[in-house]
Design goal:
The protein is mainly alpha-helical and 130 residues long. The chain contains six helices and two strands, in the order H-E-E-H-H-H-H-H. The protein has a two-stranded antiparallel sheet. Helix 2 packs antiparallel against helix 6 and helix 3 packs across helix 4. The longest helix is centred in the middle third of the chain and has 16 residues. The relative contact order is 0.12.
């Protein structure tokens, strides 16, 4: 089956990077053999930014990494303390995985970081909203 594709990703990413609005229509793949042709899809808004990409979350993770290194622990040591694989700690530190509150408190205690102190840092990093 021959697949004819039209890609608008270059223009979409360019518009996103420059802070401009997305084009009103984004074309999907064409499947001429199946009778399907490009169908415009209305794009009303961009998806919200995931919390792993926000500056406040970066502050949270950086506090955990700083505390782990200050305690002289490797990722493997920390993973052993919390009963998780080393890849869990690596993904958290690389901001590939979001922490829930219980996991955050567990990791904080394992590295000797006061969770309240870390959360105060995060609070200071958050923008003031009126």
């Amino acid at each position: 089956m021959e697949l004819a594709a039209r890609t608008w990703w270059a223009s979409v990413s360019q518009a996103w990077c420059n802070g401009k609005a997305l084009p009103r229509y984004i074309l999907f793949w064409d499947y001429p053999e199946m009778g399907l042709v490009s169908r415009p899809v209305i794009v009303n808004r961009l998806p919200p930014l995931k919390s792993v990409h926000t500056p406040a979350y970066r502050v949270l993770v950086d506090a955990l990494v700083e505390a782990r290194k200050a305690a002289g622990l490797t990722q493997q040591d920390l993973a052993h303390r919390v009963g998780k694989p080393q890849s869990f700690v690596a993904k958290v530190e690389n901001r590939e995985r979001r922490l829930d509150v219980i996991e955050f408190i567990d990791l904080s205690r394992a590295v000797g970081l006061d969770p309240h102190t870390a959360l105060r840092r995060v609070e200071d990093a958050l923008p003031i909203r009126t």
